[in-house]
Fold this sequence. Notes:
- This protein is mainly alpha-helical.
- It has helices at 41-44, 50-59, 65-77, 83-91, 98-112, 121-146, 160-169, 175-187, 195-205, 210-221, 229-240, 246-255, 273-288, 292-309, 315-325, 333-354, and strands at residues 25-28, 33-36, 39-40.
- A three-stranded antiparallel β-sheet has the order 1-2-3.
- The two termini are 18 Å apart.
- The structure holds acetyl coenzyme *A.
- Acetyl coenzyme *A is lined by residues 194, 225-227, 229, 259-266, 309, 311, 314-316.
Amino acid sequence: MNEVKQEKVVVRGLEDVAAAETRISYVDGVNGQLFYQGYNIHDIAEKASYEEVVFLLWNARFPTKDELSTFRSKLVAGMRIPSQVVEMIKLTPPNSHPMSILRTAVSMLSIYDPDTEDIGISGNLRKAIRLVAQIPTIIADLHRVRKRQPLLSPDPNFGIAANFLYMLRGTPPDELEQKVIDLIMVLHADHGFNASTFTARVIASTLSDMHSALVGGIGALKGPLHGGANQKVMKMLREIDNVDMVQAYIEGMLENKKRIMGFGHRVYRVEDPRARHLRKYSELLSERIGKRHLFEISHRIEKIVKNAKDIYPNVDFYSATVQNALGIPEDYYCTVFAAARSSGWIAHIMEQYGDNRLIRPTSKYIGEMGRPFISIENRTI
Ligand code: ACO
């Protein structure tokens, strides 16, 4: 058989390949820094609200007080979802993964959104507000449907993040909980050309609609090598259950070449800057709910993995114990990530539309060429 002669260089996993230019966020993997529109995450975290960050990602500047107030009201008002989507949620099997339902629900929202096919700037901004507002409602409603509890409407006194927690749990979050859920949303809002953002941009580059791009982003985020890691972290902490068991458990994993969930990163060679903020609240909140051992186990894992492999926690590691302490069920952790990241995906989708070139790479063909066709009656195995 003929072989194909090609000069193509394959970069496995597109590691270090710059697939486009962006102004939205920058991940400095060498120095462990993250910037949203030029602002260092450490200067934003705990100072700017999630709504301020969403405005920043979409408009390249922070809002004024008046702009923020209008933006926040629009977002909270946009949290309602069509009754048909609630009916669909009710029909789903109780053991299906919340990320699968979220993916399906966002796809379904496109059918009822009056602006789905309008990918102009104003149509996109209207959809953007609705989507960022509706995703937390889908997640909260799903949980309450499964618990056979009545669905709740958003409280206009809360922003998106606190409303999410209120509508999920049914109890209003106290001041610390409001601050922490807002922080989680801020820290997860954007992160360069990660797998789910890239997926969303590929879909947008075909000039398909924003909902389709988000559905793709949700699908990519769901995987355990990406946003699905936080749920696996909690499973690991439950399995270990005791600080004295950490050493043996982790050494066993490493000896068997198993990955420790919540550790390592394609871009960061040092600690993920988001982990610093989450570690602090993991300790504070675990202590507060009488589960300090979960933080102690996490901290011990961190030390062992660092010593053994020089690998650091990523955003998913301490987010598990923080979400646990906020009363978010384990299988919903990735949906919280998706709710926050929807704002970043949308910023990237709009940036892609603004200066579009179809993303269509090539591949290096390594198969055979010129194989003779044999008609079915003459074929043997
Ligand atoms: N546990 C143990 N070893 C690890 C881990 C880990 N979590 N991550 C990387 N390594 C090791 C690899 O085994 C490899 O070691 P070796 O050179 O001795 O064979 C080395 O580090 C390099 O690993 P790569 O696979 O080349 O790193 P890559 O950039 O492909 O992986 C990834 C990045 C997928 C995130 C990886 O670190 C991983 O699987 N982590 C666990 C899952 C996770 O936490 N995902 C969330 C990432 S953050 C996010 O998406 C929000």
